[in-house]
Amino acid sequence: MTRESSSSSRKQSDQAAASASDATHVVLAFEDNRLIGDLFGQFDQNLALIEQRLGVDAIARGNQVTLKGSQAGCSQARNALEALYQRLLQGQEVHPGDVDGALRMAAAAEAQLPLPTLEPKSRLAFAQIATRRKTIVARTPTQDAYIRSMDRADLIFGTGPAGTGKTFLAVAYAAALLERGDVARLILSRPAVEAGERLGFLPGEMKDKVDPYLRPIYDALYEMMPAEKVDRGLQSGMIEVAPLAFMRGRTLSNAVVLLDEAQNTTSMQMKMFLTRLGEGSKMIVTGDPSQIDLPAGQKSGLREALGLLTDIPAVAHVRFNETDVVRHELVGRIVTAYDNASRHESEARERRHAERQREEPSTGPRKAATS
């Protein structure tokens, strides 16, 4: 055997030994057999998702599951399954999206990120929002930070792409505060800006004219609260859904105020809105700075506010990105593709600008010499 072949075989055996030392297996047993079907999923689909995401084997037998694979993968799978089991013990449901969320949170804990929080027994503690109709549980570390920021700060900015849960979580949090009696009113608003279409004249009363702009907020609100309570709240004024222009001249006290699609506010509109904050109130501002529908040349009030208010202690800003998309998996890929295209276009502009700057000094003397 030559020296090279001996060295190669030794390296392969070392790699195999390292791989074997990293491999492990963990046996988990869950006491309540009634919850096993929901925990493992129909035809063990939840276990299949864990296998796919973490590269481990998950073998179910009765109320036990055996995890085989890398130490990191088995550790994350164990944390995710235990967190989902605790959720079932609390009477909550588990859907494939919840499994995905538990895996994301377990990965964040494995990477020793500051969120999610670990309880004393090393059990994942997801931030939650409890409303009468459902309990919303954070599915990503950024969502966890967002919910905790809404607990801590009086003014919260949530920015990022579509599908990350910015508006949904904000409406859920606002509904929870209203149901607990922490605030007396819930005020939801959006700027009435046409997103590339010309809607023309809309018939009906003022409510009929502005409802199309506010429909996403209505949808989230009806998902959080019983329909009859929402309808009563809208009639009594306890719940108010209004375009941004209706906020001028008001002081909003003892209320939770949500401004959605804030990237389409002007500088003056944003200043007007933020200065409506009254005693005992909380403001949540959401938007996507990459989706501005204002006329060309008009500055976004959201971008300006984020630059001006970053150093104020009572103001929180949580940034979402494409990894936080919790809709269809394809949505995350679409957001990434658009972000990459935007970045490439920006880099191309910078290169052209740099080339023009390099050319300007050299063209000047030649012109002078020919004149």
Order of helices and strands: HEHHEEHHEEEEHEHEHHEEHEHEH
Specify Rg, calculated over alpha carbons.
Answer: 26 Å
Number of helices: 12
Query: What class do helices, strands and sheet pairing give?
Result: alpha/beta
In a nutshell, what does this entry contain?
With 371 residues, this protein is α/β, with parallel strands linked by helices. The chain has 12 helices and 13 strands.
Describe the fold and architecture.
The structure is a single chain. By secondary structure, the chain is an alpha/beta fold. The chain is built from twelve helices and 13 strands. The strands form four sheets. The protein has a six-stranded parallel β-sheet with strand order 10-9-11-12-8-13. A three-stranded antiparallel β-sheet has the order 1-3-2. Helix 3 runs parallel beside helix 5 (96-110), helix 6 runs parallel beside helix 7 (166-180) and helix 10 (267-274) crosses helix 11. It is globular. Residues 15-21, 116-122, 195-199 and 367-371 have low confidence and may be disordered.
List keywords for this structure.
three-stranded antiparallel sheet; 371 residues; alpha/beta; six-stranded parallel sheet; 49% helix; single chain
Please give the structural blueprint.
Elements: H1 3-22, E1 23-29, H2 36-40, H3 45-54, E2 57-61, E3 64-70, H4 71-89, H5 96-110, E4 117-118, E5 124-125, E6 128-130, E7 135-137, H6 141-152, E8 155-159, H7 166-180, E9 185-190, H8 206-224, H9 227-236, E10 239-243, E11 255-259, H10 267-274, E12 282-287, H11 301-308, E13 315-319, H12 329-370
Helix pairs in contact: 3-5, 4-5, 6-7, 7-8, 10-11
